Every structure is written in structure tokens, then in C-alpha cells.
Amino acid sequence: MSEPASISTGIAERYATAVYDLAREANQVDAIEGDLDALEAALTDSDDFQRLISSPLYTRDQQAGAIKVLADKMGLTKTMANTLALMAQKRRLFVLPALVKSLRETIAEAKGEITADVTTAKALTKTQADKLTKSLNASTGKKVSLHATVDESLIGGLVVKVGSKMIDTSIRSKLNSLQNVMKEVG
Fold first, then answer.
1. With the C-alpha atoms ordered 60, 65, 68, 73, is the resulting torsion angle positive or negative?
2. 3-state SS track over the chain
3. In what way does this protein cross or attach to the membrane (predicted)?
């Protein structure tokens, strides 16, 4: 990990810990999860929001004003709105995507849950997702929630990442390994 990325991650983790502690004390963890859904949607769907949090062209006051309006429109909790306002004043809104990720991980860990990143060539059906979730629950001993994405370049199969473990059963990886074996022979 590069140094700037690790600095951003460290900043995000400190904010995430603080937000989680405040939410837990106020019994608002579920509400904070709703805030995270809204923020993730804004980060994914809005280029303007991405620019607002990452562009150095906006002043502290412009960012703080925009964040206040956005927090009101999104219906964010007071805890999250105040955190975003503080981040705007400190010029740290650029760590918001890492904050969302870190806070999700903190909440999941507190609930005894773990997230599995699953990449498939085609979208999983409900039955396939349920079977995979059940299998991962059994193998990890924790409640697993799937974060599924589609990557057609896999050709077939799937790639599952749970924590630091990765299982790659994609046809693309099998073809790559076959290609490497053939290079060694020839």
C-alpha cells in the first residue's frame, strides 16, 4: 500500500471508530447503516459529489455548506452529518469512501458478520447466492453477506474473497495457469 493510501486509511479508520462509538452509545447503529447506504449511493451515482469531496478547488466553507445541504436532503443522522461537517472543515472529505468501507467493516465485525466479495461471469441467481452464502457461513463460522459483482472476462466460474483468503475457480484463471504450464514445457 502506498504511503498516501495508508494515511487516508488511517484517517478513515479513526473517524469510523469515533462514529461507531457515538452511534453505539446512542443506539443508532442501524440508522448509521442507513446513512452508509445513502452515502454509498451518492458516491456511486453522482460525479458532482465525487468532485465535491476530492477537488481542492472548493474552499472549506463551500464544502461545509454543500455537505450541510446534502446531509439534510439525504436525511443523515446528526452524528453522521456532524462528522461530515467536521471532515469538511478539516479538508478530509477525500477519505469519505474509505470511511464508509471502514465503518461498514467495524459494524459487521461488531455483529459477528463478514463480507465476501464474489465476482462472477454472470449475475448469480437467488438460489446460487443462497447456496454460496450457506456454504461460506459453514466454512467461516460467521454470518456472511455477499457483495456480488459481474466481470464477463472471467468467462465462467467465480472468484470469492473472504478476508485475506481468495478462491479463484474462474475459467480465465484456469486458462492462464494452463498457458503458464505450456510455456514451461515448450
1. negative
2. CCHHHHHHHHHHHHHHHHHHHHHHHCCCHHHHHHHHHHHHHHHHHCHHHHHHHHCCCCCHHHHHHHHHHHHHHHCCCHHHHHHHHHHHHCCCHHHHHHHHHHHHHHHHHHCCEEEEEEEECCCCCHHHHHHHHHHHHHHHCCEEEEEEEECHHHCCCEEEEECCEEEECCHHHHHHHHHHHHHHHC
3. Peripheral membrane protein
Question: Does the pLDDT value for residue 186 go beyond 70?
Answer: no
Question: 36-40, 48-52, 66-70, 152-156: which range is least confident on average?
Answer: 152-156
Query: What are 86-108's pLDDT values in tens digits?
Result: 999 999 999 999 999 999 989 98
Cell 459494524 belongs to 107
Q: Cα(126)–Cα(130) distance, rounded to whole angstroms?
A: 6
How many Å apart are CA 125 and CA 139, to the nearest integer? 21
